[in-house]
Structure formats: structure tokens, C-alpha cells
Amino acid sequence: MKILLVDDDAMAAEMTAAILEEAGHVLVVAQDAADAVQKFDANPDVDMVVSDMNMPLLSGIDLFRQLREQGQHIPFVLLTGDDAGPLLAQEPRLDACLVKDFSLEETLAPAIDAVMQARRSV
Of 11, 37, 91, 117, which residue is 20 to 30 A from 55 by alpha carbon distance? Predict the structure, then answer.
């Protein structure tokens, strides 16, 4: 699966990319939400977006909303250093919201699989 990974922190992006590549995914990496919109437009075969929440200018939720306003209903997984519950309450249309901590190595790949399975069964 081709995933657009969005994170303004290069080290965090590298770690997340390693997890996703180990799970067999192909990545397009964006440095922030504005870069993500450009890379999304240039890669129409992207199957999912995995984005950091806290980025300059546009947050991960802002990016999600912008894509939805453009008619893009691609699966979207938000990563946050904060509690995921309030973010899901703020934007319940998110496919998943995961805490970006030491457990991401165990939680990210299964969450992506669950999102794609749920999308297939709709």
C-alpha cells in the first residue's frame, strides 16, 4: 500500500517510516501539511495518509479537513503526542488516532490493517 507520511520532525518521520516500510508499505514523505497537499496531488495512487497532529501552520486535523473539503475520502490516521481521545471527539471522522510514543512500533501497523479492513467492509 502507498502511504503519504506527514511529519515536520525529521527524526520522528524517519522512525515512523521505518515502521511502515517494515510492514511492507511504500512511502511518500511530506515535511508539513502544505507539502503533503502538493505530494498528494502529485501521487494520485496514495492509499492512505498518516499524519502528525502538531505541525506549523496547518495541524494534522486541519490537513484532514482540507482533504475532506476537496472531496478526498482517503483513509487518514492521525499521530499525536497528546491523548487521542479528545482529538477523536473533536474530529470523529478520523479513521484512527494513535499516540505517538514508544508503543507506536506495536500499534501503527495493526491500526492501519484495521482501518483498511473496516474500509473494505463498508
Answer: 117
